[in-house]
Design a protein that fits this description.
mainly alpha; 2 domains; single chain; globular; about 110 residues
């Protein structure tokens, strides 16, 4: 295998610093991945073939990985408006990092 020395980070959709898998759709549309390299997304946004990887690449020696913490309902509501997606859809995709249960108050 090639040993590559790389300075920077490569956060990928679905991982702690970019928990929203739906961000793959704009990436695919921009790159025309389905037609240019025959890389498909399933309905659940899994990449096909399964050996495929995607990421945003930041090549800077001081770039650091981070995690998005638990988010409250007001943040999800704002995000859903900015994305133009139904609140329930955004909540489903971001369920692991929600700081509230359904229509209840925050978990704090």
């Amino acid at each position: 295998m090639l040993k590559i020395k790389y300075q920077g980070i490569r956060p990928a959709p679905g991982y702690p610093s970019q928990p929203d898998h739906t961000e793959k759709r704009p990436m695919w549309n921009l790159l025309k991945s389905d037609t240019e390299i025959d890389l498909q997304l399933s309905d659940s946004l899994a990449m096909m073939p399964a050996s495929a990887v995607s990421a945003l690449v930041f090549g800077h020696s001081e770039a650091k990985y981070f995690a998005v913490g638990a988010i409250d309902k007001d943040q999800v509501q704002s995000y859903s408006k900015r994305k133009g997606m139904e609140l329930e859809t955004v909540e489903r995709w971001l369920a692991p990092i929600l700081n509230y249960d359904d229509n209840k108050e925050s978990k704090e």
